[in-house]
Specification:
The complex is a heterodimer of chains A (about 140) and B (about 250). Chain A has a domain at about 45-135: Immunoglobulin-like. Chain A has 1 helix and 8 strands, in the order αββββββββ. Chain A has one helix at about 1-15, and strands at about 45-55, 60-70, 85, 95-100, 100-105, 115-125, 125-130, 130-135. In chain A, the strands form 2 sheets. In chain A, strands 3, 4, 6, 7 and 8 form a 5-stranded antiparallel beta sheet that branches. Chain A has a 3-stranded antiparallel beta sheet with strand order 1-2-5, with no helix packed on it. The termini of chain A are far apart. In chain B, the strands form 2 sheets. In chain B, strands 3-2-5-6 form a 4-stranded antiparallel beta sheet, with helices on one face. Chain B has a 3-stranded mixed beta sheet with strand order 4-1-7, with no helix packed on it. Chain B is an alpha+beta fold and about 250 residues long. The longest helix of chain B has about 60 residues, at about 115-170. The chains are: A mainly beta (about 140), B alpha+beta (about 250).
């Protein structure tokens, strides 16, 4: 009986040992193209700076803030074509950059010492990624 | 020509009377020796017993002598024979034996009613035993098949989820990722959970069925066969007195 019981228990243990666990991690957000992605932004702001716009006579007419962006293609799960989109949250104006991994966007009518933000996202195969918002104080 | 009698002839003549007596005695002995033997043998006859079963029957002759002979030399006349064998009924018959003849008595001992009832009981017992083993075995085999199917389903659901995860990890299509996360993965996770529950239930049923099967086999192996009490043997033993090992009564022939 003991041998039979042992065999039986081993068989059950093997059966249960062979059982699979749910392989889906919770939360599932590790893919950078996922809307719920929480890792390193795909579109980073490498630096910001201000610039004074002069007219033809050399007189300053406006101050702009320039955001320098970099697309982290090294984080892509697979090589793909993309379009970067930047949006000024103040007026919703968008600019796009096709397959550029480094680009810059400036915003006008800024005041030194104020905080300004810029939204960036990618569009891949007709679908956009999550939006990353970058804010900086104009120096 | 006169012949002179020899000494021998003189002796013969003198002893002629005793020789005549001797010859008469010799003649009587010869007659009784040569022809007398058949005259004595003709007072018995031979009875050969052809009995079914032929190997272990016993016979009581004239209510007095219990034996296992197949050939009986019997005096002329009626003889009562009571035949019995294990599991059979006693057959009581009277046979006329003619002197100097040899005859066969063919008897088929019928099975006793108790033995037939015992056979039925053994048959029922074996059927019950078979059923007691077969039903749990069938249940266990069924549960094993169910468990196997549930495990395969479970493994398939798990594999599907792994494929979904791989696709999620490697996909560079946000639309596909959204579809994966919103539709496919939740549906496959439902399948996985369902198959997991089914596997647990089927494994539990299989464990119970297998344990019950082992127990029922062990119980069946321990259950003794119904015993046969040969009441005809008791009756047969009572038909004739047999001395015991000490020469007194109460002996049991076996």
């Amino acid at each position: 009986m003991n041998r039979q019981a042992a065999f039986f228990l081993v068989a059950l243990a093997v059966l249960f040992g062979a059982c699979l666990k749910d392989p889906i991690p919770d939360p599932l957000n590790s893919n950078p193209f996922d809307q719920d992605y929480t890792g390193t932004p795909l579109v980073e702001v490498t630096s910001t700076n201000s610039a004074v716009i002069l007219d033809d006579d050399g007189l300053p007419i406006d101050t702009v803030m320039v955001f320098h962006f970099q697309v982290r293609t090294d984080l892509f799960p697979a090589s793909t074509s993309y379009r970067a989109i930047t949006r000024d949250p103040r007026d919703g104006s968008e600019l796009t950059y096709q397959d550029d991994d480094q680009f810059a966007r400036s915003i006008a009518n800024v005041v030194i010492g104020q905080t300004y933000c810029m939204e960036a996202q990618l569009e891949v195969v007709g679908t956009t990624t999550r939006v990353w918002t970058h804010c900086a104080i104009l120096q | 020509m006169n012949r002179k009698p020899s000494i021998g002839s003189l002796v013969d003549r003198r002893s002629a009377r005793p020789r005549k007596v001797f010859r008469l005695v010799l003649a009587f002995l010869l007659v009784s020796g040569i022809f007398g033997s058949p005259a004595i043998a003709q007072t018995t006859g031979q009875l050969r017993l052809v009995v079914d079963p032929g190997h272990d029957f016993q016979v009581i002759l004239d209510g007095a002598h219990r034996m296992q002979e197949r050939v009986l030399d019997l005096s002329e006349g009626n003889h009562r024979l009571q035949l019995w064998a294990p599991t059979r009924r006693i057959v009581d018959t009277t046979v006329y034996v003619r002197a100097g003849s040899s005859r066969e008595l063919v008897v088929r001992l019928p099975y006793s009613a108790e033995f037939l009832a015992h056979q039925q009981e053994v048959k029922r017992f074996r059927e019950r035993l078979w059923l007691n083993k077969a039903l749990p075995t069938v249940a266990t085999v069924g549960a094993a098949a169910w468990t196997t199917a549930a495990y395969l389903d479970y493994r398939k659901a798990g594999r599907q989820l792994r494929d979904d995860k791989d696709l999620y990890t490697t996909s560079a299509d946000p639309g596909e990722i959204a579809e994966l996360k919103n539709d496919r993965i939740p549906a496959h996770q439902d399948d996985f959970r369902r198959s997991k529950v089914m596997l647990g239930v089927s494994t539990g049923v299989f464990a119970v069925a297998a344990a019950y099967t082992i127990w029922s086999y062990r119980r069946a192996d321990r259950t003794p066969l119904p015993l046969f009490d040969d009441s005809e043997k008791v009756r047969f033993d009572g038909l004739v007195w047999l001395p015991g090992p000490d020469g007194r009564g109460g002996g049991r022939p076996d």
